Amino acid sequence: MRGAEPIFLPGEPHVAEISVAGEAALCDRRGALYFPDLALLCVSDLHLEKGSSLARRGLLVPPYDTVATLLRLQAVIDHYRPKMVVSLGDSFHDVEGSARLPEKMRLDLTAMMAGRDWFWVSGNHDPQPPAGLPGDTVEALAVGALTFRHEPSREAPPGEIAGHLHPCARIVQRGRSVRRRCFASDGGRVVMPAFGAYTGSLNVLDRAYAGLFNADGLFAYMIGATKVFAISGAMLRPG
Question: Among 89, 200, 205, 206, which residue's beta carbon has the most beta carbons within 10 A?
Answer without folding.
Answer: 89
